[in-house]
Design brief:
The complex is a heterodimer of chains A (113) and B (114). Chain A is an all-beta fold and 113 residues long. In chain A, 0% of the residues lie in helices and 42% in strands. A five-stranded mixed β-sheet of chain A has the order 1-9-8-3-4, with no helix packed on it. Chain A has a four-stranded antiparallel β-sheet with strand order 2-7-6-5, with no helix packed on it. In chain A, strand 3 and strand 4 form a beta hairpin.
Chain lengths: 113, 114
């Protein structure tokens, strides 16, 4: 199974950009890169996903390395509400159109006022 | 859309009792997933269904755990008999069959077995 590696924790100041890295050196050509986050006492929440090209949505941007062995989730202006655990996940092939999500430990993001 | 609905939100029971957790997926979603989250093991996939049929139950810890999906709008996860080590937050998620497999999670049920 393709695995991801993320730092255990990161800190950011409010209103500043945050770059959350993820390494996935064993990614296969069909794996999507998903990012979810989990706010305190809530269920995981979808943030963004991509395959090969960089992606932007209202929540964040996803920068994918050319060799796809790493990616970076970018929060352009961190707010206190962005304090959460961020998970970088590869969908497993062979599970139909919906990939099984295998959650690692994620990165705990602290945002300082 | 109301999102994924789970009930109850909190459940406290005594060891040996039967516990039933309920989930209503987002209308139109063909996939339904049950996860468990503990401090020690993080988020684990227990079982998932496609079109009401169980596809992979390899994450179900023991025979004490069972899950059913009698129709497209309802699923249950049952623990009988419950044990203190079953204490965890149980999440249900659903996903459409099209797209990249994005899953939408419910708020979870916090289970405490005394």
């Amino acid at each position: 199974d393709a695995k991801t590696t993320q730092p255990n924790s990161m800190e950011s100041n409010e209103e500043e950009p945050v770059h959350l890295p993820c390494n996935h050196s064993t990614i296969s050509g069909t794996d999507y890169i998903h990012w979810y986050r989990q706010l305190p006492s809530q269920g995981p929440e979808y943030v963004i996903h991509g395959l090969t090209s960089n992606v932007n949505n209202r929540m964040a941007s996803l920068a994918i390395a050319e060799d796809r062995k790493s990616s970076t989730l970018i929060l352009h202006r961190a707010t206190l509400r962005d304090a959460a655990v961020y998970y970088c996940i590869l969908t497993l092939p062979g599970s139909g159109n919906t990939g099984k999500l295998i959650f690692g430990q994620g990165t705990t993001l602290q945002v300082k006022p | 859309d109301a999102g994924v609905i789970q009930s109850p939100r909190h459940e406290v029971t005594e060891m040996g009792q039967e516990v039933t957790l309920r989930c209503k997926p987002i209308s139109g979603h063909d996939y339904l997933f049950w996860y468990r989250q503990t401090m020690m093991r993080g988020l684990e996939l227990l079982i998932y269904f496609n079109n009401n049929v169980p596809i992979d139950d390899s994450g179900m810890p023991e025979d004490r755990f069972s899950a059913k999906m009698p129709n497209a709008s309802f699923s249950t996860l049952k623990i009988q008999p419950s044990e203190p080590r079953d204490s965890a937050v149980y999440f249900c998620a659903s996903s459409p069959s099209t797209g990249s497999g994005t899953q939408y999670f419910g708020p979870g049920t916090r289970l405490t077995v005394l």
